[in-house]
Amino acid sequence: MEMRLLGLLVVLLVAVVIWLTVQRSQRRRGGPVQRPVNGRVVPPPPEEIPIEDSESFDVWGFRDTQFSVNSGGEVVVEGDRYPLSGKPIPSLFPWFQKQIEVPLDVSDRRPANYGADIPPSRAAESQLAELGALLAEDRCSVDEEERLRHGHGHTQEEMYAIKFGALPRVPDVVVWPIDEEEVIALIDHAKTSDFVLIPYGGGTNVTDALRCPPDEKRIIVSVDMRRMNRILWIDEQNRMACIQAGAIGRQIIDQLADYGFTMGHEPDSVEFSTLGGWISTHASGMKKNRYGNIEDIILDVRVVSPNGVLERSGVAPREAVGVDPRRWMLGSEGGFGIITQAIVRLFPLPEVQEYGSVLFPTFEQGVGFMYDLAQTDGVPASVRLVDNQQFQFGAALKPAPSGWGRFLGKVQKAFVTKGLGFDVNKMVACTLVFEGGREEVRRQEETVYRIASKHGGYKAGPENGRRGYQLTFSIAYIRDFVMNHWVLAESFETSMAWDRILPLCEKVKARVRKEHEARGLPGKPFISCRVTQLYPTGVCVYFYMAFYYKGVERPEHVFAEMERAARSEILAAGGSLSHHHGIGKHRQQFLPEIMSPAILDWHQKTKDSIDPQNVFGGSNQGLGSSPDAKP
Amino acid sequence: MEMRLLGLLVVLLVAVVIWLTVQRSQRRRGGPVQRPVNGRVVPPPPEEIPIEDSESFDVWGFRDTQFSVNSGGEVVVEGDRYPLSGKPIPSLFPWFQKQIEVPLDVSDRRPANYGADIPPSRAAESQLAELGALLAEDRCSVDEEERLRHGHGHTQEEMYAIKFGALPRVPDVVVWPIDEEEVIALIDHAKTSDFVLIPYGGGTNVTDALRCPPDEKRIIVSVDMRRMNRILWIDEQNRMACIQAGAIGRQIIDQLADYGFTMGHEPDSVEFSTLGGWISTHASGMKKNRYGNIEDIILDVRVVSPNGVLERSGVAPREAVGVDPRRWMLGSEGGFGIITQAIVRLFPLPEVQEYGSVLFPTFEQGVGFMYDLAQTDGVPASVRLVDNQQFQFGAALKPAPSGWGRFLGKVQKAFVTKGLGFDVNKMVACTLVFEGGREEVRRQEETVYRIASKHGGYKAGPENGRRGYQLTFSIAYIRDFVMNHWVLAESFETSMAWDRILPLCEKVKARVRKEHEARGLPGKPFISCRVTQLYPTGVCVYFYMAFYYKGVERPEHVFAEMERAARSEILAAGGSLSHHHGIGKHRQQFLPEIMSPAILDWHQKTKDSIDPQNVFGGSNQGLGSSPDAKP
Questions:
Q1: Which of B281, B575, B609 comes nearest A606 by C-beta?
Q2: Which pTM was predicted?
Q3: Is the model's pLDDT at B546 over the cut of 80?
Q4: Per residue in B406-461, pLDDT tens?
């Protein structure tokens, strides 16, 4: 009996030694080294989107997810899709009404009138028949709600209009091409028939980019690219993939992951936005520190323009060939043609993904930490610093703890406030995402926490970091919810050099408060900021602005005015017009303040050169058909 | 006595302890952390270039440095500027003549006829007077040799022509503006007087970019930007500097170093080339792995165009504002206007700079090493892999060792060939430059050497690495030297995905040999390659091509034909038209092979939009005045 036991122990010991040796040899290979594999693989098409993953038309996101008020009068996120889903969030309204100094009643819900007053389609039967001949008829629609949805993005003005007002002009037809031949045929047809084409991806822009020019008399066709959604090939050895422009972020992520890769591009909208949209808006992802912004990711772009197809014979890691279609298309916001596909850079899925968080006593100390971190070679994939209001906001979104969790929460709070001496009305938080090889991540963590402690930071653990990062995707749903409860809210962003951050944030907050008071609006505004991206030369700063609008006339216009005032303050304080949201129509009035006339003139002529007829008449960035343009 | 000694020892001990503590606390600061400093510093103008740093007009580089033959018949680099300077290089000719299988006689020197047949200036006295009124008269010249120098770059065809042939068309006037007002006045004057303006920086391009269109009848004015050479400001906290476009690389390096910074941009031509030139050619530097290519470095560019000044109200670390002058100007090769200044990103000078080198048994193994290294986070600032011919070339450039050095050399060679079993006709070398924090460099070294040994690499020490890297700057002088000894030589480069490297290099080499043989040229060609840049998605490959041309008619044209054949082979094998040299006129014929007509048409229209009169008539990339352009 003892012999058998001994034998078993020996076998176990040998097994453990073998396992440890294998682990060690894997580590000795230095992390995720890619074994060269010849040729390209062709993934299958992405799965049809199941009914449970349908998107809402009248609000942000998935249909199964909404902030709402349960029968007990508690705020809760419906469904089970997100970490936040399903649990009552008792603190949100109480906390927020303290911020804006107006009582918020969960039962005071404004009735919405979504889908009222949708302008009828101006397309004649014959025109529809012609379009239906180009594509199959089931990919050509005049359905009211489809046309409405394709006529807006997610600015507060648009979201307000579709529920409580009306959009004066929306597309007359929506089409879904399935290949480049159809796109070419569409553009040829639009030229001869004098239609307007507006490319459509996820419809998640926040710049009025999809809003139809109200005086546009030509037939407006929304070209929804999401049937062109394949990964055409993956080149595993050379770390590239060719992806159709209508592929949506979450499907790209899933499909690439099947092959062990990622693009690493993860904007807030990634569940819904498309590759073509990212290129057109000049997007930035939350993990750009590791994976780059869209201009770093895109290796080649293929475009159907009114003057022919912009295509290259091959792709190179880097070239100096005088001209490059990527440069025209990045940030072009649908004005030059339809992007059909692009070649993107890939990264192997990271060996390790870890979260982290740090509390700082003040925003200033947090910014000092960010600055010192930006000077090192240990910057993690994502680093985001929220101000005190957003820190409190994050706490207010926590589901109600019970029993032991509640006790622990109190203990932690007491430790931080009494033990560390943090002031609950000044403290801020930094959330971190680390991705990479095991050693690489360890080194980044060491760098981050060492620098954090120099700036008075307190390491608050991975769970807060994960929560803070993941909150991004569910926060997007809040805006539509509070809109029903008489609060308008929006985000706007900018970029600036390091030494501008603190004065700029203060000035913008002060300006918003001043504008709010000057208009005699109820209560106080909510204005909060966070530093979401860092560069050696500066940062991206995101603002949230909100106010109570019951009793306010045309509140969406008042909000837009105040946002423009904030933007003027930003520009005066040395911030940019946009870090990544873009211009659209929402900010085009500011372009002459930041660019000389010769730039804007050249830009219009660039538009005229490729699209003299203004087929792509979305009219973003003030680009329309100029009198000089020759068809 | 003993007490004093003891006292001294105690003092020494205390001093050592203090020093160690200071060292430790510095390390605890985590490397070169930049202390924020408010405001911008304004450096003084760079020093006047002293007479001893004059450049040659008829050959590359500094006047004090040439390869030549000393009285003893040995090849030697004159002067004392470079590590290679001053010591006889006995192996070069014997080795090279074995490569090309033609006897090379150091005394057989072809007489040059530099400066013969310089076309006279076409500018009338009145036209000169007008220009002299715009700028001071001493900054306006019709001197023959100035005009000749400003009418070419450093392609072999141009360098051959100026010494053994003639350039049919050169600028009629050379001007040196000192500020933007003069540049604006020049352009206005050129518009009204119908002059051509060709911006000039270091004159080091290798694409015929400065070669004047031979049929150009208008007065051609070369606008030498090098009097606009100041660093206008350095923003130490935000790590940016604003630099005038005519500043030359070596002065930028020196001046920024005074403040503890570097741009990190170090192309082969950095001693002479200018910031404006780097932007216009879409340049890449040898240390781009750490510092980025020019598109990563440039934050803003300011341009005087025929349609006005392209200027921005401020600079941001990153923006999405729809249009960006950088995108038009990168790689524009002088066709759109004159860049007057740019804002660049800075890095603190690295804490540590170290060299390294590795020998590999074969090129294939070296490429395998490069691939695996590119997948890690430990890529050093510079990694370059030469093939066997360049490895031998590097060895042939070694000054003759004597005594102990000679013995050691034999021992090392015996060890490598007999001990390690490397074949002298297959082995290759990789030179490395590490820059960064101490720990960062240590980590990179560990990564590099670990991966190198997996691919059969033998660590060959920092001295060979330093030597190999520094050779770059002196190698440039060789081409003009061998041209006088009946050998034409040129470099050309490309970029490609990883899996194309080996077949492409073989095919190009085979094609060159075939073309050489088909033309019945003497001996054999020299054709060699190196991998000079790596990216996750591929590499840059540089070729050297040379052949003996005594007895060959129009050898410079024969060479150019063979180079075009090599380029066709490159394109067919999946390489790009250029990684960083650019297009100029030298490669413009290939543009329709790599870009669709719609791209080229849009590009021409972009040109017409900003310069309808073709004032910037250098005619690079095939961009001239099209019939549609409206003045």
A1: B609
A2: 0.93
A3: yes
A4: 777 787 788 878 888 899 999 999 999 999 999 999 999 999 999 999 999 999 99
Of A440, A574, A602, the CB nearest to B609: A602
Return the beta strands (E) in A124-258 as ranges: 140-141, 173-175, 196-200, 220-224, 231-235, 240-244
**Strand (E) or helix (H) holding B231:** strand B231-235
CA angle, corner B482, sides to B479 and B484, nearest 5? 115
Contact indicator for B170, B119 with CB cutoff of 8 Å? yes
Phi/psi at B277 (5° precision) = -65, -40
The H-or-E segment that residue A430 falls in is strand A428-436
CA nearest to A476, candidates A82, A61, A181, A151: A61
The tens digit of pLDDT for each residue in B561-588 reads: 999 999 999 999 999 999 999 999 999 9
Instruction: Say if the Cβ atoms of B598 and A330 lie within 8 Å.
Output: no
| Listed residue (B494, B508, B542, B562) closest to A314, CA to CA | B494
Which strands, in side-by-side order, build the sheet including A308-310? Answer: A40-41, A231-235, A240-244, A338-345, A298-305, A308-310
Strands B382-386, B526-535: pairing kind: antiparallel
Chain pair A-B, CB pairs under 8 angstroms: 310
Distance, CA of A571 to CA of A593 (rounded, Å)? 9
Closest CA of chain B from A328, distance in Å? 8
CA distance B179 to B174: 16
DSSP H or E stretch at residue B2: helix B2-28
Quick one: which of A591, A126, A390 has its CA closest to B321? A591
**A55, β-bridge pairs:** A62
Q: How many CA atoms lie within 13 A of B317 on its CB side?
A: 24
- Taking only Cα atoms into account, the Rg of chain A, rounded to an integer number of angstroms, comes to 26
A555 with A160: CB under 8 angstroms?
A: yes
B442 touches chain A (CB under 8 A): no
Q: How far is Cα A5 from Cα A11, in angstroms, rounded to an integer?
A: 10
pLDDT band at B1 (very low <50, low <70, confident <90, very high): low
* Interstrand relation of B196-200 and B220-224 (parallel, antiparallel or unpaired): parallel
Q: How far apart are CA A609 and CA B629, in angstroms?
A: 11
Q: Is A413 on the interface with B (CB under 8 A)?
A: no
Helices (H), B397-525: 404-414, 438-454, 462-475, 478-484, 501-518
**Identity of the amino acid at A120:** P
3-state SS, B193-219, equals HCCEEEEECCCCCCCCCCCCCCCCCCC
SS3 A259: coil
DSSP state of A615: S
Strands (E), B500-570: 526-535, 538-548
SS (H, E, C) A204-227: CCCCCCCCCCCCCCCCEEEEEHHH
| 8 A C-beta contact, residue A71 and residue A34 | no
Kindly report the nearest CA distance between residue A411 and chain B, in angstroms: 32
Closest CA to B337 of B347, B345, B329, B348: B329
By the 10 Å C-beta count (0-12 exposed, 13-18 middle, 19+ buried), A185 is classed as middle
Identify which of A609, A613, A610 has the alpha carbon closest to the alpha carbon of residue A305.
Answer: A610
Closest chain A residue to B576 measured between Cα atoms? A316
Output the CA torsion sign for B100, B103, B104, B110.
Answer: negative
Strands A173-175 and A220-224: parallel
Interface test with A, best of B208, B305, B321 (most A CBs within 10 A): B321
Contacts of B314 in chain A (CB under 8 A): 571, 574, 576, 594
The CA-CA-CA angle for residues B440, B443, B444, to 5°, reads 85
Pairing of strands B338-345, B298-305: antiparallel
